[in-house]
């Protein structure tokens, strides 16, 4: 394909949706990718660039002049434009901004760049359709024809007063089915949902999902309409959040993919392995404390993997349910009640597991009866402990304002490993006197 | 609040959005919830019911007559109506359907009930706005005013030929900004995306997210337009999918929440704990095979938790990245290349971990030099093995058409525990001759 046959290639690519071309470019090497981007017009390439993997986009932009980047930025909606610029090194950012020809577009992008990227302000676009309450339906439709050219998709029409304060909303459907001399103020719905520019994007996602909104207006401190957030951006937020929690639960720092370099993957994975390693070494030194070389000690030691696996599994199960409950907003404050429930749950699971364990170890493995009993009692205690730790830590972190998802995965497994083994040998010492 | 003061309560609740009322009802006991539902009119309660937790909705519906349920169903869009009916026991389903007064609504619901709930047909709604290619813009707007009353939100207007075959789409914006005598055929966009009724909902979600669609038309084998799927339903699909993967990774069967009963939670958690338990017992019997009561054997045993924790963590990391890559469609077929990369990655991580482990065990713990060396070599081998197993199993399952997410969590941890301990003692036997 890459035989530099410009015309054919251009015609071929014209047929595809920009999201498909982006997938093709993701797989090309850098030179070819830059070549294709330079070949196509900026209206197409700006959309393609936004669909690319962040790493690849960054590399391609490094090969474009600030002038060329400014041309791409001109074609993008303000929110995408601000995202693209914010990924550039600081010195190039100013250069690109100064080369944007459309004054209004430039000012809007600069406004958006001022917001934190995790806030509604950082996610919103300036493109929206707004009408004044004093207009009529006919006047409104006329003006919308003008405004709507800049807005890719019209979800809602926002109604503002003479000071640009948000006071209501209208759907295009409402406009179409109303008589043309109706006053906007009479058909506007005043129960409009909105978010503040400084609101956290995850909260915005929760509100939009809860009320099934496809777009939400954003206001500043004066209740002035400053932008809108659309559902496609929120889907990305939801996906990123889910991916992040999943990766944390698996002991991977966020933001890596299977195709990243070994160096990047190592950076994301090694820290968590060290946490596990220190836990393992901690367990080894606990075991050392109890070592008196008696016969039963080796039998007890051989069941350490059983204790450890159980403690780890229970801890992850408990913490995952709590973390998900917190993320979905279905968990409220009553810590003690929840810990008591986890205690009961641990007791039920613990008794079930230890009854089976006692049967298998004593009757199949031929483990001495007293050791089997010790293992079973320890299993109940360890399961209850792991369930309580797994529940308590995420709730505690959440109350302190820390993302509870960091408490899942290796963190909870490691602490439960160490505590579990300690409890196991303490119980063994009590019963067997080792 | 629940002093049966009907009028006050009704007025109070009128102020709230149905999603907020649903949250309140989720927290009420069953009698009060049924009382509130019976108090309000079916236009409000039908929306509230759809927002409730599935369990609670089921309980409330059990307390309503089929006549009352039919009234709720009348108010719902066809997709929600079909969902609500499908949750009823079989015998009540037919009764409710026969009591729906609106013939068209009843037939549409029956059509939707025939589709599998995991397909586009099971997710779509019959409510949509369609126009014929031969109409003019003016005629179109007139007809839309009629059709749009039944459609909560108009995303796109679908253009069909005289046989109801989907041939294009229009946005309301396009209609508004076109002259009134323009033929629909002239302004319709013919590059309309669509899905087939039998397509998997997860594929539909991928397509809609990739192309940033807010609604997608659904066609049958004849390319006839039979329904449409909107983005809010897709958000639920994405969330459920993410929740399911997360819970599988944590060793919880899907579909439980922190507030479920202890019995339900135990059912979801206990099977995975048994998997872990059998792994632990398997490890114990492996250890037994190597037991010869030598001095170094106890030292080796005390490092079993270290080996086990490391094998488990590496396995979960590897499998999580692969599972996520498969879910996002970023992983392709080259298994050997990927396994080789995991091998290198495991080698890098393994060497880093074991260098630190050798220093700590020998110089701080005073472990004999030869044992420290054994542990370190075993760590490298175990990490490489865990990385390869963690990568291979999800890819293998995916190729066989099994959801790779089941291979994460306790499944991968347990198999890596057992293999890890086996490798550890095999290496120890080779080096130390125990």
What is the H/E order of chain A? HHHHHHHHHHEHEEHHEHEEHHHHHHH
The coarse silhouette of chain A is elongated
As for the CATH topology of the largest domain in chain A, it is: Tetracycline Repressor, domain 2
- Most extensive interface, chain pair and sizes: A-B, 108 and 108 residues
Going across the biggest sheet of chain A, name each strand in turn.
1-2-3
Query: What oligomeric state is this?
Result: homodimer
Proportion of helical residues of chain A: 55-70%
Strand pairing plus helix content of chain A: what structural class?
mainly alpha
Figure out the total of helices of chain A. 21
Distance between the termini of chain A: 74 Å
Work out the radius of gyration of chain A.
30 Å
Q: Note poorly predicted spans of chain A.
A: none
Structure summary, number of beta strands of chain A: 6
Percentage of residues in strands of chain A: 5-15%
Q: Domain count of chain A, please report it.
A: 3
Specify the biggest β-sheet of chain A.
3 strands, mixed
What does this structure look like?
The structure is a homodimer of 434-residue chains. Chain A is mainly α. Chain A contains 21 helices and 6 strands. Chain A folds into 3 domains: 6-116, MgtE N-terminal fold (Alpha Horseshoe); 129-230, CBS-domain (Roll); 262-432, Orthogonal Bundle (Tetracycline Repressor, domain 2), CATH 1.10.357.20. Chain A is 66% helix and 6% strand. In chain A, the strands form 2 sheets. A 3-stranded mixed β-sheet of chain A has the order 1-2-3. A 3-stranded mixed β-sheet of chain A has the order 4-5-6. The mean pLDDT of chain A is 83. At the A-B interface, helix 11, helix 12, helix 15, helix 16 and helix 17 of A face helix 11, helix 12, helix 15, helix 16 and helix 17 of B.
């Amino acid at each position: 394909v890459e035989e530099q046959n410009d015309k054919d290639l251009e015609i071929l690519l014209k047929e595809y949706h920009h999201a498909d071309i982006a997938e093709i470019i993701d797989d090309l090497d850098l030179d070819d990718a830059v070549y294709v981007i330079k070949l196509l017009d900026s209206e197409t390439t700006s959309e393609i660039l936004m669909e690319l993997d962040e790493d690849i986009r960054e590399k391609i932009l490094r090969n474009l002049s600030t002038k060329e980047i400014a041309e791409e930025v001109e074609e993008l909606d303000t929110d995408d434009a601000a995202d693209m610029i914010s990924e550039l090194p600081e010195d190039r950012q100013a250069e690109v901004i100064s080369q944007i020809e459309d004054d209004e577009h430039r000012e809007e992008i600069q406004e958006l760049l001022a917001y934190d990227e995790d806030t509604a302000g950082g996610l919103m676009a300036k493109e929206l359709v707004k009408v004044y309450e004093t207009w009529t339906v006919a006047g409104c439709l006329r003006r919308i024809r003008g405004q709507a050219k800049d807005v890719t998709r019209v979800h809602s029409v926002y109604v503002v007063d003479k000071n640009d304060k948000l006071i209501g909303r209208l759907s295009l459907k409402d406009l179409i089915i109303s008589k043309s001399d109706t006053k906007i103020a009479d058909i506007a719905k005043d129960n409009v949902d909105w978010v503040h520019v400084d609101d956290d994007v995850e909260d915005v996602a929760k509100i939009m999902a809860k009320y099934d909104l496809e777009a939400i207006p954003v206001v500043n401190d004066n209740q002035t309409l400053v932008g809108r957030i659309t559902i496609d951006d929120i889907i990305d937020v939801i996906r990123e959040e889910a991916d992040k929690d999943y990766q944390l639960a698996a002991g991977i720092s966020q933001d890596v993919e299977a195709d990243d370099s070994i160096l990047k993957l190592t950076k994301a994975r090694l820290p968590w392995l060290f946490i596990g390693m220190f836990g393992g070494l901690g367990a080894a030194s606990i075991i050392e404390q109890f070592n008196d070389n008696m016969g039963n000690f080796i039998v007890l030691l051989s069941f350490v993997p059983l204790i450890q696996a159980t403690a780890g599994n229970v801890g992850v199960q408990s913490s995952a349910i709590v973390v998900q409950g917190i993320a979905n907003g279905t968990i409220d404050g009553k810590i003690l009640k929840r810990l008591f429930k986890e205690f009961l749950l641990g007791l039920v699971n613990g008794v079930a597991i230890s009854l089976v364990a006692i049967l298998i170890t004593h009757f199949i493995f031929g483990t001495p009866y007293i050791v089997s009993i010790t293992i079973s009692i320890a299993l109940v205690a360890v399961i209850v402990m792991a369930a309580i730790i797994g529940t308590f830590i995420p709730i505690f972190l959440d109350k302190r304002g820390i993302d509870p998802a960091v408490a899942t995965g290796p963190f909870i497994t490691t602490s439960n490993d160490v505590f579990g083994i300690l409890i196991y040998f303490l119980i063994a010492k009590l019963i067997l006197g080792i």
